[in-house]
Amino acid sequence: MRLIPALALLLMAGTASAETLTLYTSQSPEIAQQTVDAFQAKHPDIKVEWSRNGTSQLMNILRAEIEAGEVKPDVLLVADTINLGQLKAEGRLMAYPEAKVEAYDKGTYDKDMTFFGTKIISTGIAYNTQTAKPVETWADLLADENKGQIAVPSPLYSGAALNHLHSVIDVPGIGWDFYEGLARLDIAPDGGNGPALKAVASGLAKYGIIADADVIRAKASGSPVELIFPKDGVSFITEPVAILSTAKQPEAAKAFVDFLLSSEGQELVAKQGNMPIDPSVTPPDGFPKLSEIKLLPMDADKAVTTDRDVREKFTETFGG
Questions:
Q1: What DSSP state is assigned to residue 234?
Q2: Strands 150-151 and 241-243: what pairing?
Q3: Domains recognised in the chain with CATH numbers
Q4: Which of 95, 107, 266, 318 could make a disulfide contact with 278, Cβ separation 3.0–4.6 Å?
Q5: What pLDDT, in 10s, does the model give residues 227-253?
Q6: Which of 89, 94, 116, 97 is nearest to 105 (CA)?
Q7: Helices 263-271 and 29-42 sit at what angle, rounded to 10 degrees?
Q8: What's the rounded Cα separation, in Å, for the pair 154 and 254?
Q9: Which parts of the chain fold into alpha helices (H)?
Q10: Is the pTM of this model over 0.70?
């Protein structure tokens, strides 16, 4: 009879000794739960407590915690690199030089190994197949017949749009000339990817500058939209993961990073409907192979230092 209480105590002790990893993420609740469940299946000894919000709101929460001296998360998994670049500049991210990134494009992770892309979400050109024709380059959009007919998310609102802006302004053949061309066509960037896609799918706009997965899913569900990956390149966000320098569970945090970068983690990305960064993992239906598109990497360190000036110039360009 004494064996049963003793066994119960052992089980309780085992549960109490499990590490608890705290994650802040901007993934949708459904995707975040899938990610956490898959990781915990691989690491049943690590419990994950996660909190989900938009990247901007998560950064506001984190800033408040930093101010109070009570930083809760061990790991961040958010939409874009600019916020992580700012945290890196402040010394708030932990370098993880042993992360297994050998097979990945160098543009998908920080050169100082403080944050790592987990997927490719590129921004391409969507068009309404009933009202518009495909184009080959970004500049091809700037035709007079497209006046007022291009849906463009605002980089003052959308993280993907801000990333796109920083990625293309120094690219020959695109640059600020592209945005000035949009302004001449009476294009008024506004909102995020959702409204832009709705405008193209409904025929209110002929073209849109929109994230790839949104367009591909809409096409699969019957919307009259098609996606173009311009031959002069596409910007992309990588939903990077980073370990905080204040992490209370650094080894568990490294295990989480390792999982996201592993073949199993990358296959999960594909299953969730996004393009994996691992070129050996087959992307979902409707996506090209990673080798078939030209990526335009963004220098996050530079973006951190120039972001204010870039936003101001964007506002001036569109008469704000």
A1: B
A2: unpaired
A3: 3-119+238-283 (3.40.190.10), 121-236+304-317 (3.40.190.10)
A4: 266
A5: 999 999 999 999 999 999 999 999 999
A6: 116
A7: 150
A8: 35
A9: 3-17, 29-42, 55-68, 81-89, 159-168, 175-184, 193-202, 212-220, 250-261, 263-271, 300-317
A10: yes
Give the separation between CA 242 and CA 94, rounded to whole angstroms. 8
135 near 105, Cβ under 8 Å?
A: no
Q: 250-261 and 29-42 helices cross at what angle (nearest 10)? A: 110
Instruction: Please tell me the distance from the alpha carbon of residue 196 to that of residue 272, in angstroms, as a whole number.
Output: 22
Is residue 61 classed exposed, middle or buried when 0-12, 13-18 and 19+ CB atoms within 10 A define those classes?
middle
Q: Which phi and psi (to 5°) does residue 216 adopt?
A: -65, -40
Q: How far is CA 298 from each of CA 53, 56, 172, 189, rounded to the nearest angstrom?
A: 24, 19, 14, 21
- CA–CA separation, 225 vs 239, rounded Å? 25
Which residues is 122 bridged to in the sheet? 236
Query: Partners of 125 in the beta sheet?
Result: 209, 228
Distance of CA 213 to the CA centre of its chain: 11
pLDDT in tens, 55-81: 878 889 999 999 999 999 999 999 878
Q: Residue 207: CB partners within 8 Å, gap ≥ 6? A: 125, 126, 127, 128, 132, 135, 141, 146, 149, 150, 151, 200
Q: How far apart are CA 73 and CA 21, in angstroms?
A: 8
> By C-alpha distance, which of 23, 18, 20 is closest to 73?
23
Q: How many residues does the chain have?
A: 320
- Between CA 222 and CA 208 the distance in angstroms is 17
d(CA 101, CA 98): 9
